TrEMBL record:
SUPFAM superfamilies: cAMP-binding domain-like (SSF51206). Pfam families: cNMP_binding (PF00027). InterPro entries: cNMP-bd_dom, cNMP-bd_dom_sf, RmlC-like_jellyroll. This is Crp/Fnr family transcriptional regulator. It comes from Chryseobacterium bernardetii. Residues 12-116 form the Cyclic nucleotide-binding domain.
């Protein structure tokens, strides 16, 4: 298991001691998922945290009409989990799916939570990660969902070229909360 990028990402939030690193690595394993495999299905308990080494992952829920509504996409070097399901210890409302073949490092929620209790530096990493990714990054997203048009949000998504080019049209329209036809109209307008 090549864990160097995984540890580099963790240490960028808070540096871990050798002892903590060894304890963390002892609960990690590597797993491959094929395109369209589920890492977690809606209605299941979230038993793992994941670190995406390669590939693309989508995080979605199903609306009343049975449509997939994508909330977020994860590229390489991202930490992925159904965080609120883990915190509430309830089945996940979201499915986590491989949109491409993926290689992940995964570690069990229960064992990881035990390490958080024991290792102060790991707990500080966890707090800083949550603050940055679930508070700082998420608030503008929630505001933009309410106040920005789909076109403005599409232009924001376009700024991340690598992510945009990897997504299928139905993933993008679902993420923007519009139909594929509306997405085509927006693209035509932009490319005029």
């Amino acid at each position: 298991m090549n864990s160097s990028e995984f540890l580099k990402q963790i240490n960028s939030y808070y540096p871990l001691s050798e002892e903590t690193t060894a304890a963390l690595m002892s609960i990690c394993s590597e797993e491959l998922y094929k395109k369209n495999d589920f890492l977690l299905e809606s209605g299941s308990m979230a038993r793992y945290y994941y670190f995406l080494q390669s590939g693309l992952i989508g995080y979605y829920t199903i609306d009343e009409e049975g449509n997939s509504i994508y909330k977020i996409f994860f590229e390489e070097n991202s930490f992925v989990a159904s965080t609120s399901a883990i915190i509430k210890n309830e089945p996940s409302d979201f499915s986590i799916i491989a949109l491409e073949d993926c290689s992940v490092i995964k570690y069990p929620v229960k064992a990881y939570r035990e390490l958080l209790e024991k290792y102060h530096d790991l707990a500080l990493f966890h707090i800083r990660y949550l603050e940055k990714n679930w508070v700082v990054k998420k608030e503008p997203l929630e505001v933009s969902l309410k106040f920005e048009t789909a076109k403005q949000r599409y232009l924001l998504l376009l700024e991340n070229k690598s992510l945009h080019n990897r997504l299928k049209q139905h993933h993008i329209s679902s993420y923007l909360g519009i139909t594929p036809t509306q997405l085509s109209r927006i693209k035509k307008e932009i490319n005029r």
